[in-house]
Amino acid sequence: MTAPGWRLTDYEELAQLGSGSQGQVVLARHKTSYQVVAIKYLAADLLNDVRARTIFRDEARLIARISDPHVARLYGYVETGRGAAIVMEAIRGAPLRQVIDARGAPLTPEAALAILKGSLMGLHAAHSVGVVHRDYKPGNVLVQEDGQSKLIDFGVAVLAGQGGGSGTPAYMAPEQWLGQPASAATDIYAATCVLVECVTGAKPYQAATLDDLRMLHLRAQVPVLQLPEPLQPIAAWGLAKDPAQRLANAAEFIVHLETAASRAYGTDWEKRGLAVLGSITAGLGLAVPLVAVGGALLGSGSGATSSGAAWAGGQGAGHAAAAGHSVGGTAGKGVLAKVGGAKGAAAIGFTAAAAGTAAVIMWPSGPSIGGTSRGDVRAFFTRPDIFLRQPYMPASETPYIDYQMTVHPSTVRAGTKVRMTAKFHARLPIGAKYGPGGTRTCFGEKSKRTDVTNNYGFGMGTGKDDSSPHGMHFYPMPPVRANEFPDNPWFLVKATEKNIDNHQPYVPSLCAYDSKWTDIFDFTVPPKRDLPPGRYLVAPQHPMKLENIRRSDGDTPTPVPAAEVGGTTSGHLPIVRVVD
């Protein structure tokens, strides 16, 4: 494939994972770093096909924007006059399609919800940088042996707002059938279709002809009655015909999902769901990594997936962060703490290569400095009705902290100057009273009533002294895993902090403080005796999780157990790789 015999010379091929008329995928190991990767080569007879080469290059260009544990990672792109190749992460796991088929029966609701949550986290990372997948389906989700999932195949992905009818018909949203612009809501529709299939064993819409299937997606009622009652609202939100009526924000969808799952299946639903998925995947006994690259160029038809097997084979404390409100107390107004994060596109240099021109971007061929990593952490309550003593308060009205982080560069060495941009958003209902059906009456921020939302607080890292040195907390991987929020401190790197765009208004239409600001942290990577080479989760405070939950009927705050009120921390921290 590509020019006969053309290969990336820095890699030793281990196995062929998939091939077709439009390309070939191989498992390979870097000769110096010994890193195992998946390499996708463009077919030789397509190298001079401008459209095919552009699609191939654009796939890499879009994936380069995304950095998230739930999305297969791009390592590099190479294009010369003799060939083109995409180098990506090789993942231990199996396609969700294979997991479903191997089980031979519907997945448990907990397992299906765990898959949906992981996928939504990956989609949220893509949507945050303007990328819409457009071909979410069981074949494009890899389930690992710990049950966690990764999203693959951005072969038909586009930037938000672009149109076109590409996708897999069983999972295509109405706007795709109509050739209208794609948005985050397009992917959420497909993810909800997969949820229905996982839980019921059948796709939400089935027809004998493509035209009939099109009409079902466009006009048929959402098949919510196929699902267990707790999941019916999720399906209704995700499968609405009008994209404006869907929960178009994947992060918001996750909050609703976790609330419904915790209420219906207990607070350990995700742990049990991941265990089911992991046991099925481990039982498949697969031998080599499944290719984690887009399949649109491996066979005929858009969205075709690649074939292949799967690989079975500190110290110190940061400053406090909290959210709280106390009328007449010393806590002050609105959110009291510092948590945050910013979205942005990863920058990777791509150069279009005409015949005879070389354009090489290869990260694995040597540990260069660069890249961007993102994290998104959300703290909220699945039982705000209990926490705020409002029996009719819906879970969607929960107080929350949303903390989004961008780190650049994310591959570093001793002496590298690094910046974390952290964007904070918190919403704290104050002065609200809820009646039957969740109806809200707002009595304002200065209300002295005792039957409204008031006198409570929570935070991240609030158990620490705010006068402690500010810094970045580094947690080594392993033993820490990608989706953990570690309890034990490891390494602290001193950092400077700048706070900008601080706005904390009380919004009567929300009956809540709606607080936003941005923190910018700058630090220098210390010598390796203080921070050894390796992969780390990073956070600007410790622990980066919901804590110090409290409420008060008087002057003295009373601690509230997280389990009692459904206190939940979801999301993931950014990852930084320290090299020699």
From TrEMBL:
Using the record's annotation, list all stretches that form the Protein kinase domain: 11-259
- The membrane spanning regions, by residue number, are none
Key word Ribosomal protein present: no
Recorded GO MF terms: ATP binding; protein serine/threonine kinase activity
Question: Keywords on this record?
Answer: Kinase, Transferase
Annotated SUPFAM superfamilies: Protein kinase-like (PK-like)
The keyword Kinase is assigned to this record: yes
Q: Where is this region: Disordered?
A: 548-571
InterPro entries noted in UniProt? Kinase-like_dom_sf (IPR011009), Prot_kinase_dom (IPR000719), Ser/Thr_kinase_AS (IPR008271), Ser_Thr_kinase (IPR053235)
List the record's Gene Ontology CC terms alphabetically.
cytoplasm
Protein name per its UniProtKB record:
Protein kinase
Organism of provenance: Actinomadura rayongensis
